[in-house]
Amino acid sequence: MNNNSLQMLITMCIYILIVIGIGAYFAKRSNKNSENFFIGGRSLGPWVAAMSAEASDMSGWLLMGLPGVAYWCGLADAFWTALGLAVGTYFNWLIVSKRLRKYSYVAGNAITVPDFFSNRFKEKKKIIMTIASLFILIFFSVYAGSCFVTCGKLFNSMFGFDYKAMMLVGALFVITYTFLGGFLAESVSDFMQAILMIFALVVVLFVGTTAAGGIDTVMANIKEIPGFTQFFGLAQPTLENGVQAISEAGAPMFEPVAADYGFLSVVSMMAWGLGYFGMPQVLLRFIAIRKADELKRSRRIATIWCVISLAAAVAIGMIGRSLYPTALLTKADAESIFVLMSQTLLHPLFAGVIMAGILAATISSSDSYLLIAASAISKNLYQGVIKKDATDKQVMTVSRITLLAVALIGIIIALDENSVIFGIVSFAWAGFGATFGPLMLFSLFWKRINRAGAIAGMLSGGLTVFIWKLVLNPLGGVFAIYELLPAFIVSCIFIVVVSLLTKEPSAEIQEEFELAKTVEC
After folding, report:
1. What are the residue ranges spanned by the domains of the chain?
2. pLDDT one-digit tens code per residue, 471-482
3. Which end of the chain has the least Cβ crowding within 10 Å, N or C?
4. Predicted local distance difference test score (pLDDT) of residue 11
């Protein structure tokens, strides 16, 4: 390891120690009881709620996955995905946050998403809670895997360390940290990490643009690639055994005609925004904020952060193609463009801080995923269904066992070092968006939805994601669209049809629905 690499590694280790310190500081308070451990006793302020929601949502995908998409095939896929996410962020905070904060309080002071759904429909047999908890376990295991892939790729590309060894070290660190501090530590460190992430993106964007000779030079270079700068066309790298071919002149080769990118493709990528309505790691911040009235400020903070970060990530990928056209020749390697630019353009100590931004993004997401999965199994399944008289101590024990189990599944998923972060995240995102998104919207805003409709909506949405992705998507054509869109629509249809065909909700449920509109909390 040379001196530059050593300086970067030291900087990142210092950052890791700071994060562990935050976990240790909040350990006593978080472990006081399960409510403190899982939602911090509803004590988040507007800045922490907003920034921690966005940091836990975006993860290493923002700094590696999205720039990688822009580097590999140009503007269209990355831009329409980013636009969908920005719009989804704004409307989620605008229409869902305040209503959910109030309704979760009214519905038995629910502290998890499955808890809210179950209380919302006054379940005696906890079928909704069980289904929701199992889907959380499945999709957060996939999400955790994407975070561990990011850790492995980061240290492998930076220092040449063995991918699997670094992936395991990253997983162990996240598990230890989450064990220590719970939700409060996670949220406070996520606030710090959100600041570091946006700082890293803006710095690399500015330095990269300067190194490339300015915006005009960048545009001149990438416009030569067919479809690379088009909103309705997609650049197609010429591949030989999965590796981009290089011409005799030493330039990367692309197909002479851009791939078609029509209305269906745009809608498919924009559909990423629908996922926000079902993301437990974001919805939990709405539940945990100190006062419902503070959510307006949180919405502004979250939206501004999201727009700046997404725009910078897309631009970095495109600038990277201009700067290093032949450096990354596979789709998986393309996700290291942010790392490459940071290492080559910045002083080692400063690059170490920027690289800590990727680590920050990964940690902020993976700890959220592990914690929410743990709460779903221990609080909802174990205490809610299996052992209703379970003590708080027993719940905490089961939650830690679940943390280990989810982490282990994530590690197994991450063993393949050729995994594409963007692909892993897109599947889990679709799963949550279709399973919980429609149900959340109808639960908050439609009085007529009933328990049968809720169950039908969750099952149809979740199963459609699997069927569309694994069976229909490979057929191509209209089936090539992102699975979240058809699955979201299917779930909505099932909720409405089944609810209307079955008995309407009880008077108690309808009264509680109206109370949630006006209650102050």
Report:
1. 3-518
2. 999 998 889 899
3. N
4. 84
